[in-house]
Amino acid sequence: MEKQQWYINDDNLKLIYDLLEKYKHKTINFLEIGTGHGYSAIKIMQKMSELNIKGNFYTIEKDDIVQINQKFKGIKLHIITADATKYLNDNLELQENQKEINNIDLLFIDGMHRQYKQYFELCFDLMNADSYVIADNTISHKEKMLDFIDKVKEFNTTFYETEKGMTITHLNKTKYYLKQMNIEHDFVPENKLLLDVCCAPCSTHSIDVLLKDNQKITLFLSNHNVHPIEEYERRKTEQLKLADKYNLEIIEDEYNDKRWFDFIKGYENCKEHEKRCDLCFEYRFLLLLKYAYLNNFNKVTSTLTISPYKDSKTIFSIARKIFDPDIIEYLEYDFKKQDGYNHSIEKSKDMYRQDYCGCIYSRKRD
Ligand SMILES: C[S@@+](CC[C@H](N)C(=O)[O-])C[C@H]1O[C@@H](n2cnc3c(N)ncnc32)[C@H](O)[C@@H]1O
Ligand code: SF4
Question: Which of 29, 163, 290, 297 can pair with 194 through a Cys bridge, CB separation 3.0 to 4.6 Å?
Fold first, then answer.
């Protein structure tokens, strides 16, 4: 490919190469906005390959001009011919497990300069907790992206004074969410795990697995989604009995169904497994993060994955976007594995077992 003027400069490519070093031998999701003919995409994939970085390389280009004929072992290339703003907007509205692009580790913005801020905002919910946003031409076309420059200043951004300029923003979403919740705390991580518990029957097997793995656990009960209050109390009573039986500490988060209803607003009429449930998981993980951080837990996980009605991949995908493993690690326990659900039924024969997920909408059938 003959190099054209609007292709990425060598000095800026070098900055991307340096950043890729961090991901040596790892598996990542890379998203590029503005493929052009594919010069930067090829160069970046070449470098990924050299560093034994595997994963997905997504690239979006509005015009039908992409010429990438090379393949790189371990890297799955997805060329998307679309207007990125429209495509990303549609992608955002999809359910978690239907999004084509998700859990991005590295985002490279090289599309229309006036749209940089829009790309950033549309991608934000798709980015992993510990991820980077790279933007090209931040000096040469600065005047057209002043709003973007202001936006990235809210995060940990380095401005590189290369010929055309480049910014690299380290998005620490864990810190971002904590700030949103007005949490200030001198975090001193301790080796202990906070377990998000949805109900006693689901907790039985999950606790057994964690204790077998020598995890030091505390239970965290935060069921703002459960309605009506009588049902919340019934589940809570059973959960307290179980904690007592296992001699485990249990923390009860203050019940606040109003906040939960506000959070899922607009998605009340979804079916189970649809977007309302994605938001419901996100909501409980934010509260899990808050308590874990304030109380120096270095690990968290959730009993939600035991249910055959809940997609574990969706749960992990949401967790990856909230918990930065360098601060608080979400342990990806899939409790439904090894017949976990049946084991939990076996162990909870004399317990109260609900017949609906929790929120009022999942109870509609009666
Ligand atoms: C500077 S060129 C990309 C160069 C390429 N990254 C490289 O270094 O080889 C910018 C590209 O972004 C594309 N573009 C601009 N706005 C876009 C949008 N909204 N969606 C998708 N592509 C867009 C343009 O068509 C153009 O091909
Ligand atoms: S059905 Fe269950 S997971 Fe979905 S929103 Fe209701 S309580 Fe939450």
Answer: 297
Ligand nearest to the CA of 279: 2
Beta strand 156-160 with 190-197: parallel, antiparallel or unpaired?
unpaired
Task: Give me the phi and psi of 107, to 5 degrees please.
Answer: -115, 125
Residue 351 to residue 84: CA distance in whole angstroms: 51
Ligand 2 center–CA 221 separation, angstroms: 15
**Average pLDDT by stretches of 10, the chain with 366 residues:** 81 98 98 98 98 98 96 97 98 94 98 98 98 98 98 97 98 97 97 97 96 98 96 96 98 96 96 93 98 98 96 98 98 96 90 92 73
Do residues 61 and 81 lie in contact, with contact meaning Cβ atoms separated by under 8 Å? yes
* Residue 293 to residue 41: CA distance in whole angstroms: 38
* Ligand number, closest to the Cα atom of 359: 2
Nearest alpha carbon, ligand 2 atom 2: 357
Q: What is the per-residue DSSP string for 3-33?
A: --TTSPPHHHHHHHHHHHGGGTT-EEEEEEE
Its pTM stands at 0.96
Domain 10-172 is found in CATH 3.40.50.150: yes
- Boundaries of every domain in the chain: 10-172, 181-363
Give the CATH architecture of domain 181-363.
3-Layer(aba) Sandwich (3.40)
